[in-house]
Amino acid sequence: MTADTLFALLALATVAAWTPGPNNALVANSGATFGLRRTWPHVFGIGLGFPLMVFLVGFFLGGLFQASPLLREGLRWLGAVVLIWIAWKIATSGGISTPGREPRPFTFLEAAAFQWINPKGWAFAVALTSQFVDPASPLESAFIVGAVFLVVGLGSATTWAVLGQAITRWVNTAHRLRWFNIAMGAVIAGCVVLLFLD
């Protein structure tokens, strides 16, 4: 990979990782609701899960997903349904919960697995593989793309979680937390709408 290509990849990764989207809204909400210490598994699930997904898509699945509009569209709809459910759970309860249990932050595995149904993640993963994974050396180029997203993604997820925790100074009453959670749920639901407008 040339220096110019690597710079373009770094710029794209920075925009993808730092702009508001489902991952950033979820991890900011977790930081605000549960604090940074309980949000670390979520941060690492995003920071490691997305680069692994990009690597695997680039090395194994990129051609399949580019060649199959039905598979791509099915994944997009599944991701949209899951995102709407998560947005609803956050807006109404402050976190992910199961019947009879208190809201809780994402676990590492939940956050890593979420990457596979996140429509924004898939859109970027497929776009990246078509632009930056060299068919002549798919292992090496997919590894480089994944490594760039590892560094950029961990920095982004950590920062959004810290910002979320900092918001707790403002969200210090049940009423304010409720409105913050509604706003975060709306951001996630809005991301779904934007993805379908593309």
Characterize the structure shown.
The structure is a single chain. The protein is an all-alpha fold. It has one domain (3-197). The protein has 7 helices and no strands. The chain has helices at residues 3-18, 22-67, 69-93, 108-114, 119-132, 138-167, 174-197. Helix 1 (3-18) packs parallel to helix 6, helix 2 (22-67) crosses helix 4 (108-114) and helix 3 (69-93) runs antiparallel to helix 7 (174-197). The relative contact order is 0.23. The mean pLDDT is 79.
Helix count equals 7
When the domains are counted, the total is 1
Radius of gyration: 17 Å
Strand segment count: 0
Percentage beta strand: under 5%
Query: Can you summarize the main beta sheet?
Result: none
The coarse overall form would be globular
Topology as a string of helices (H) and strands (E):
HHHHHHH
Overall pLDDT confidence: 79
How far from one another are the termini?
Answer: 29 Å
Low-confidence stretches: none
Helical/strand content category? mainly alpha
**Helix fraction?**
over 70%
